[in-house]
Amino acid sequence: MRASLIQIGVDRSESPDNRRARAAALVREHAGGTDGDLVVLPELWPVGAFAYEDFAAEAEPLEGPTHAVMSEAARDAGVWLHAGSIVERGPASGDGEGPLFNTSLVFDPTGRLVRAYRKIHRFGFDRGEATLMAAGDELAVVRHPELDLGLATCYDLRFPELFRGLTDLGAQAFVVPAGWPERRRAHWTLLAQARAVENQAYVLACGTAGTHADVPQAGHSIVVDPWGEVLAEAGADEEVLAVELDPARVALTREQFPALKDRRLGVER
User: Fold this and answer.
1) Is 269 within a domain?
2) Which residue among 60, 91, 235, 263 sits deepest, i.e. has the most Cβ atoms within 10 Å of its Cβ?
3) Domain containing 158: what range?
4) Is 119 a catalytic residue?
5) Residue among 129, 154, 206, 238 flagged as catalytic
6) Quick one: 92 exposed, middle or buried, by C-beta within 10 A (0-12, 13-18, 19+)?
7) How far, in Å, CA of 223 to CA of 189, rounded?
8) Marked catalytic residue, from 43, 88, 146, 238
């Protein structure tokens, strides 16, 4: 199974529509050739994860312009596509506009949207995403034919209980799109490896290149195997990271070192 992480650059000099077209071309270009292959885009790449002032203006419904372009790209390429995340405008309630969500979209090789995941942990403390967006409240696992994929987004990576919950739902790999800042890049690598080791699962963490609203991005998309070994890591610039995954590696690791069976907290007995 081939996984391709598209570490696309985000810059305000490029319009969201142009970036959607460019991302779709990259999806088609880097399709692996089999319908089990997976392509991943980063968090909020149409607008920029730190471009808070643009969130409301660039918000779109679930089946908006990004959905349309990415659905077609997945179908044309014949791949499973985690299309990163968008600023979703939820349904209106009462007289006001609907809330904003940081929502990931996953398509199958026919172009069908099989899962949307609303980011649970919003970054910013008392500002930014934490104040502008509503929180999701549902864990999400995609039943891919090779590996069950647990979905998380950027800041979620700091919350191990989310990943343990995904493991309990059957996840064998975690897909983590992000807009992670350069100044905390060491945490990005450390946490990706930790989530892999503690759950004995693959981690596919796809970041952005460039600068969002004067915040330099870490890049360094990374793929970690269930033993915690780094299989591949990108640099800081725009890049596509392509890695061959062995789905049997998850079961083998869990069998040879059955640490998950020794859990005593959070397990019904």
Assistant:
1) no
2) 60
3) 2-262
4) yes
5) 154
6) exposed
7) 10
8) 43
As a whole number of Å, the CA-based R_g of the chain is 17
With a cut of 90, say whether residue 33 has pLDDT above it. Answer: no
Does residue 89 form part of some domain? yes
Distance CA 225, CA 101 (A): 30
> Which residues are 5's β-sheet partners?
40, 241
- 261 catalytically annotated: no
The whole-model pTM stands at 0.96
Residues in the chain: 269
Where residue 69 sits, what CATH number does that domain have? 3.60.110.10
Residue 267 lies in a domain: no
For residues 152, 158, 160, 163, the Cα torsion angle rounded to the nearest 10 degrees is 10
Structure tokens at 233: 């890591």
- Catalytic residue (choose from 58, 60, 88, 119): 119
Give the model confidence (pLDDT) of 105-142 as tens digits: 999 999 999 999 999 999 999 889 999 999 999 999 99
206 is catalytic: no
45-83 pLDDT tens trace: 999 999 999 999 999 999 999 999 999 999 999 999 999
User: Please, which residues have CB within 8 angstroms of residue 5's CB and are 6 or more apart in sequence?
Assistant: 40, 204, 205, 206, 221, 223, 234, 240, 241, 242, 243
